[in-house]
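Final report, section 2: Outcomes. Of the targets proposed, ER membrane protein complex subunit 3 is the one most frequently requested by collaborating groups, and we therefore present its record in full.
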Amino acid sequence: MAEELVLDTAIRDWVLVPLSVVMVLIGVLRYFVSKLMRSPVPSSPPDPKHVKEGQVVIRARNLRSNSQYIPAKAFKARKVYYTNEENGLLHVPKEDAQKAQAAMFSDPNMAMDMMKKNLSMIVPQTLTFAWVNFFFSGFVAAKIPFPLTLRFRGMLQNGIDLSTVDVSYVSSRSWYFLNLFGLRGLFSLILGEENATDDAQKMMQMGGGGGFGVPTMSLGAEKDGLDIIQHDWALPTMERHAEDTLRKLLKK
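The predicted structure is given below as tokens.
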């Protein structure tokens, strides 16, 4: 039987609220520090080749995400148009891909920008986690107002070695991680949609690369995604789906 705990209001005042406020303030501070560390954008006009390649990537991405709305024959024709090994729009010769990769790593400004972005994420979060782990380790900071399964114990009770505590209780360390990955919506309201505080996206970029903004490498990545997609036309099942939706509405 899981134990029911009574949380002291002092934990709310001296653990939960300060931790949340500090995470928000650190995110806002990192946003402005990242803007100051960012290299100035040159005033010269963009390269027409890069603009064209970027538009091709957007069109191919739209085809991949909306492939179910066109017949199989039309999708196959468009897929060949983009991914043909001879003259496809997304096909990048091997020597061009190697040149683009070499240019990316030989550009000191790009390498410096990547290092600044990684430092602006790693250093504050490392210091914040050390602060939380030193001062608030072992605290039960909050309780989720709805029941959860045992699978959530490892996510919500990090740092608490008691298996008898109900899963809905959240430790201070887990509250830190929930704030770390869950404040994107708040930062979008405060700083705008184009903010530099999305840690989840930054970690994915650090792990997967994603082309690092090089259009030529983005072409190859989009070609691989278009090659593996399986076409599934939505029209044959559209009538049944509409019928099911109408029945649900009539039952209400």
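The chain has one domain: 9-39+46-158+165-251.
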